[in-house]
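Retro notes, item 3 of 5
We never archived the inputs for the zinc ion complex last cycle. Fixing that now. Sequence and ligand:
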Amino acid sequence: MFIDSHAHLEMPQFDADRDAMLARAHEAGIETIVAIGSGTGPGSLDCAIQLADREKAGEPNIYATIGIHPHEAKLATEKDFDELSALARDPKVVAWGEIGLDYFYDHSPREVQRSVFSKQLELARAAKLPIVIHCRPSADSHNAWDECLEILRQRWAPSALGGVLHCFTGLMEHARPALDMGFMISFAGNITFPKAQNIRDAARELPLDRIFIETDSPFLAPVPHRGKRNEPAFVREVARQIGELRGISTENVGFRTAQNVSRFFRLPSKGTGAMPIPSPSQGAAR
Ligand SMILES: [Zn+2]
Ligand SMILES: [Zn+2]
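Structure as it came back at the time:
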Protein backbone atom coordinates (compact mmCIF):
# COMPACT_ATOMS: atom_id res chain seq x y z
CA MET A 1 0.00 0.00 0.00
CA PHE A 2 1.09 3.51 -0.83
CA ILE A 3 0.15 7.08 0.06
CA ASP A 4 0.66 9.86 -2.48
CA SER A 5 1.27 12.73 -0.08
CA HIS A 6 0.95 15.55 -2.64
CA ALA A 7 -1.17 15.73 -5.79
CA HIS A 8 -3.11 18.45 -7.62
CA LEU A 9 -6.16 16.36 -8.49
CA GLU A 10 -8.39 19.30 -9.43
CA MET A 11 -6.24 20.48 -12.32
CA PRO A 12 -7.75 20.62 -15.82
CA GLN A 13 -5.25 18.00 -17.00
CA PHE A 14 -7.51 15.47 -15.20
CA ASP A 15 -10.88 16.80 -16.37
CA ALA A 16 -11.23 14.23 -19.15
CA ASP A 17 -10.53 11.12 -17.06
CA ARG A 18 -10.51 12.00 -13.33
CA ASP A 19 -12.67 9.00 -12.34
CA ALA A 20 -10.55 6.55 -14.33
CA MET A 21 -7.33 8.11 -13.00
CA LEU A 22 -8.49 7.63 -9.38
CA ALA A 23 -9.63 4.07 -10.13
CA ARG A 24 -6.17 3.32 -11.60
CA ALA A 25 -4.56 4.67 -8.43
CA HIS A 26 -6.73 2.41 -6.27
CA GLU A 27 -5.92 -0.53 -8.53
CA ALA A 28 -2.18 0.23 -8.13
CA GLY A 29 -2.44 0.04 -4.33
CA ILE A 30 -2.60 3.77 -3.58
CA GLU A 31 -4.84 3.77 -0.51
CA THR A 32 -4.74 7.49 0.25
CA ILE A 33 -3.98 10.74 -1.59
CA VAL A 34 -3.41 14.14 0.00
CA ALA A 35 -5.02 16.60 -2.44
CA ILE A 36 -3.24 19.96 -2.42
CA GLY A 37 -5.71 22.82 -2.38
CA SER A 38 -3.77 25.80 -3.65
CA GLY A 39 -5.63 25.52 -6.97
CA THR A 40 -5.26 28.59 -9.12
CA GLY A 41 -5.30 30.84 -6.06
CA PRO A 42 -8.15 33.00 -4.75
CA GLY A 43 -11.49 31.79 -6.09
CA SER A 44 -10.52 28.10 -5.93
CA LEU A 45 -9.29 27.74 -2.35
CA ASP A 46 -11.73 24.93 -1.52
CA CYS A 47 -10.83 22.79 -4.57
CA ALA A 48 -9.14 19.99 -2.61
CA ILE A 49 -11.93 19.81 -0.01
CA GLN A 50 -14.42 19.21 -2.82
CA LEU A 51 -12.36 16.23 -3.99
CA ALA A 52 -11.95 14.90 -0.45
CA ASP A 53 -15.74 14.89 -0.16
CA ARG A 54 -16.12 12.37 -3.05
CA GLU A 55 -15.72 9.29 -0.79
CA LYS A 56 -16.35 6.90 -3.69
CA ALA A 57 -15.90 3.15 -3.37
CA GLY A 58 -13.05 1.87 -5.54
CA GLU A 59 -11.08 5.12 -5.15
CA PRO A 60 -8.31 6.09 -2.72
CA ASN A 61 -9.23 8.00 0.46
CA ILE A 62 -8.65 11.67 -0.21
CA TYR A 63 -7.65 14.31 2.35
CA ALA A 64 -7.18 17.99 1.64
CA THR A 65 -4.92 20.94 2.24
CA ILE A 66 -5.68 24.65 1.86
CA GLY A 67 -3.34 27.55 1.18
CA ILE A 68 -2.04 30.13 -1.28
CA HIS A 69 0.95 29.01 -3.39
CA PRO A 70 3.85 31.46 -3.74
CA HIS A 71 3.04 31.70 -7.48
CA GLU A 72 -0.29 33.37 -6.57
CA ALA A 73 0.93 35.36 -3.55
CA LYS A 74 0.39 38.66 -5.38
CA LEU A 75 -3.35 37.89 -5.68
CA ALA A 76 -3.95 37.33 -1.95
CA THR A 77 -6.27 39.70 -0.07
CA GLU A 78 -7.54 39.89 3.53
CA LYS A 79 -10.79 38.32 2.33
CA ASP A 80 -8.88 35.28 1.05
CA PHE A 81 -7.08 34.88 4.37
CA ASP A 82 -10.46 34.93 6.16
CA GLU A 83 -11.77 32.31 3.75
CA LEU A 84 -8.73 30.09 4.37
CA SER A 85 -9.18 30.32 8.13
CA ALA A 86 -12.81 29.21 7.77
CA LEU A 87 -11.89 26.34 5.39
CA ALA A 88 -9.19 25.21 7.83
CA ARG A 89 -11.93 23.98 10.15
CA ASP A 90 -13.19 21.40 7.62
CA PRO A 91 -12.56 17.90 9.04
CA LYS A 92 -10.96 16.75 5.76
CA VAL A 93 -8.23 19.40 5.98
CA VAL A 94 -4.97 17.93 7.32
CA ALA A 95 -2.43 20.67 6.54
CA TRP A 96 -1.94 24.26 5.38
CA GLY A 97 -0.15 24.48 2.04
CA GLU A 98 1.47 24.53 -0.24
CA ILE A 99 3.08 27.75 0.91
CA GLY A 100 6.61 29.08 0.73
CA LEU A 101 8.96 30.73 -1.75
CA ASP A 102 9.52 30.22 -5.48
CA TYR A 103 12.46 32.28 -6.74
CA PHE A 104 12.76 30.13 -9.88
CA TYR A 105 9.62 31.37 -11.63
CA ASP A 106 9.16 34.61 -9.64
CA HIS A 107 5.47 34.72 -10.57
CA SER A 108 4.98 37.04 -7.56
CA PRO A 109 7.48 39.64 -6.29
CA ARG A 110 9.76 38.11 -3.67
CA GLU A 111 8.82 40.52 -0.88
CA VAL A 112 5.14 39.71 -1.50
CA GLN A 113 5.93 35.97 -1.41
CA ARG A 114 7.69 36.41 1.94
CA SER A 115 4.87 38.41 3.51
CA VAL A 116 2.08 36.08 2.26
CA PHE A 117 4.13 33.12 3.48
CA SER A 118 4.60 34.69 6.93
CA LYS A 119 0.92 35.64 7.15
CA GLN A 120 -0.14 32.05 6.39
CA LEU A 121 2.27 30.72 9.03
CA GLU A 122 0.39 32.86 11.55
CA LEU A 123 -2.98 31.54 10.36
CA ALA A 124 -1.83 27.89 10.24
CA ARG A 125 -0.56 28.22 13.78
CA ALA A 126 -3.90 29.60 14.93
CA ALA A 127 -5.63 26.69 13.12
CA LYS A 128 -3.16 24.23 14.71
CA LEU A 129 -2.33 22.67 11.32
CA PRO A 130 1.07 21.48 10.08
CA ILE A 131 2.31 23.10 6.86
CA VAL A 132 3.35 21.92 3.39
CA ILE A 133 6.34 23.89 2.14
CA HIS A 134 7.17 24.66 -1.50
CA CYS A 135 10.71 26.00 -1.81
CA ARG A 136 12.43 26.54 -5.13
CA PRO A 137 15.57 28.70 -5.42
CA SER A 138 16.64 30.58 -8.55
CA ALA A 139 19.07 28.68 -10.78
CA ASP A 140 22.44 27.80 -9.22
CA SER A 141 21.51 29.37 -5.90
CA HIS A 142 20.41 28.43 -2.40
CA ASN A 143 18.69 31.79 -1.88
CA ALA A 144 15.12 30.55 -1.35
CA TRP A 145 16.33 27.75 0.96
CA ASP A 146 18.29 30.13 3.15
CA GLU A 147 15.39 32.56 3.43
CA CYS A 148 12.70 29.90 3.84
CA LEU A 149 14.57 28.12 6.63
CA GLU A 150 15.22 31.44 8.38
CA ILE A 151 11.52 32.38 8.24
CA LEU A 152 10.60 28.91 9.57
CA ARG A 153 13.14 29.20 12.39
CA GLN A 154 11.77 32.57 13.47
CA ARG A 155 8.06 32.22 12.81
CA TRP A 156 7.22 28.52 12.78
CA ALA A 157 9.57 26.41 14.90
CA PRO A 158 8.08 27.74 18.20
CA SER A 159 4.65 26.37 17.18
CA ALA A 160 6.06 22.79 17.27
CA LEU A 161 3.44 21.85 14.62
CA GLY A 162 6.06 20.79 12.05
CA GLY A 163 5.40 20.28 8.37
CA VAL A 164 6.61 18.78 5.11
CA LEU A 165 9.28 19.96 2.70
CA HIS A 166 7.51 18.85 -0.47
CA CYS A 167 9.29 17.81 -3.69
CA PHE A 168 12.63 18.06 -1.92
CA THR A 169 15.44 19.22 -4.19
CA GLY A 170 17.82 20.66 -1.61
CA LEU A 171 20.90 19.29 0.11
CA MET A 172 21.29 17.54 3.47
CA GLU A 173 22.39 20.92 4.87
CA HIS A 174 18.83 22.12 4.15
CA ALA A 175 17.09 18.94 5.28
CA ARG A 176 18.88 18.68 8.65
CA PRO A 177 17.62 21.95 10.19
CA ALA A 178 14.13 21.10 8.91
CA LEU A 179 14.27 17.70 10.63
CA ASP A 180 15.26 19.50 13.81
CA MET A 181 12.10 21.63 13.47
CA GLY A 182 9.92 18.51 13.20
CA PHE A 183 9.62 18.42 9.41
CA MET A 184 9.14 15.44 7.14
CA ILE A 185 10.94 15.35 3.78
CA SER A 186 8.90 14.38 0.71
CA PHE A 187 10.36 13.02 -2.53
CA ALA A 188 8.71 13.34 -5.94
CA GLY A 189 9.23 11.88 -9.42
CA ASN A 190 12.27 14.03 -10.13
CA ILE A 191 14.25 11.67 -7.86
CA THR A 192 14.33 9.34 -10.91
CA PHE A 193 15.83 11.94 -13.27
CA PRO A 194 19.42 11.16 -14.34
CA LYS A 195 20.78 14.54 -13.20
CA ALA A 196 19.15 14.41 -9.74
CA GLN A 197 22.03 12.76 -7.85
CA ASN A 198 21.76 15.28 -4.97
CA ILE A 199 18.11 14.27 -4.43
CA ARG A 200 19.05 10.56 -4.40
CA ASP A 201 21.89 11.28 -1.96
CA ALA A 202 19.43 12.88 0.48
CA ALA A 203 16.91 10.06 0.05
CA ARG A 204 19.59 7.51 0.90
CA GLU A 205 20.83 9.39 3.97
CA LEU A 206 17.62 10.58 5.67
CA PRO A 207 16.02 8.43 8.38
CA LEU A 208 13.32 6.27 6.76
CA ASP A 209 10.76 7.34 9.37
CA ARG A 210 11.04 10.98 8.20
CA ILE A 211 10.36 10.38 4.49
CA PHE A 212 7.16 10.84 2.46
CA ILE A 213 6.63 10.01 -1.22
CA GLU A 214 4.48 12.05 -3.59
CA THR A 215 3.74 12.60 -7.27
CA ASP A 216 2.99 16.36 -7.45
CA SER A 217 0.60 15.22 -10.20
CA PRO A 218 0.03 16.29 -12.93
CA PHE A 219 3.62 17.57 -12.91
CA LEU A 220 7.02 15.87 -12.72
CA ALA A 221 6.19 12.38 -14.01
CA PRO A 222 8.90 9.92 -12.97
CA VAL A 223 10.95 7.81 -15.37
CA PRO A 224 9.64 5.84 -17.37
CA HIS A 225 6.68 8.24 -17.75
CA ARG A 226 8.84 11.38 -17.87
CA GLY A 227 7.47 14.13 -20.10
CA LYS A 228 3.90 12.82 -19.90
CA ARG A 229 1.12 13.78 -17.49
CA ASN A 230 1.82 12.44 -14.00
CA GLU A 231 -0.84 10.69 -11.90
CA PRO A 232 -0.98 9.18 -8.37
CA ALA A 233 -0.53 5.56 -9.57
CA PHE A 234 3.02 6.53 -10.58
CA VAL A 235 4.03 7.15 -6.95
CA ARG A 236 5.20 3.52 -7.02
CA GLU A 237 8.13 4.64 -9.22
CA VAL A 238 9.26 7.03 -6.49
CA ALA A 239 9.07 4.19 -3.95
CA ARG A 240 10.93 1.90 -6.33
CA GLN A 241 13.80 4.41 -6.68
CA ILE A 242 14.10 4.93 -2.90
CA GLY A 243 13.98 1.17 -2.38
CA GLU A 244 16.83 0.68 -4.85
CA LEU A 245 18.90 3.32 -3.07
CA ARG A 246 18.33 1.77 0.34
CA GLY A 247 18.30 -1.92 -0.59
CA ILE A 248 14.66 -2.52 0.39
CA SER A 249 11.59 -3.45 -1.62
CA THR A 250 9.23 -1.01 -3.33
CA GLU A 251 6.40 -2.38 -1.16
CA ASN A 252 8.37 -1.82 2.02
CA VAL A 253 9.09 1.80 1.08
CA GLY A 254 5.38 2.20 0.32
CA PHE A 255 4.33 0.72 3.63
CA ARG A 256 6.83 2.68 5.73
CA THR A 257 6.16 6.02 4.05
CA ALA A 258 2.39 5.44 4.26
CA GLN A 259 2.79 4.85 8.00
CA ASN A 260 4.76 8.12 8.23
CA VAL A 261 2.03 10.10 6.45
CA SER A 262 -0.77 8.54 8.52
CA ARG A 263 1.07 9.21 11.75
CA PHE A 264 2.10 12.74 10.86
CA PHE A 265 -1.32 13.88 9.59
CA ARG A 266 -3.16 11.75 12.18
CA LEU A 267 -5.26 10.04 9.51
CA PRO A 268 -7.92 7.72 10.92
CA SER A 269 -7.14 4.02 10.59
CA LYS A 270 -9.26 2.37 7.94
CA GLY A 271 -12.68 1.06 8.89
CA THR A 272 -13.09 3.00 12.12
CA GLY A 273 -15.27 5.63 10.50
CA ALA A 274 -13.51 8.18 12.72
CA MET A 275 -12.89 11.67 11.39
CA PRO A 276 -9.33 12.99 11.28
CA ILE A 277 -8.23 15.22 14.10
CA PRO A 278 -8.22 18.27 13.14
CA SER A 279 -4.05 28.64 -13.87
CA PRO A 280 -2.30 31.41 -14.29
CA SER A 281 0.75 29.22 -14.12
CA GLN A 282 -0.17 26.43 -16.55
CA GLY A 283 2.74 24.13 -17.03
CA ALA A 284 4.90 25.53 -14.24
CA ALA A 285 5.89 22.83 -11.77
CA ARG A 286 4.28 23.42 -8.40
ZN1 LIG B 1 5.31 22.76 -4.99
ZN1 LIG C 1 2.43 20.90 -5.64
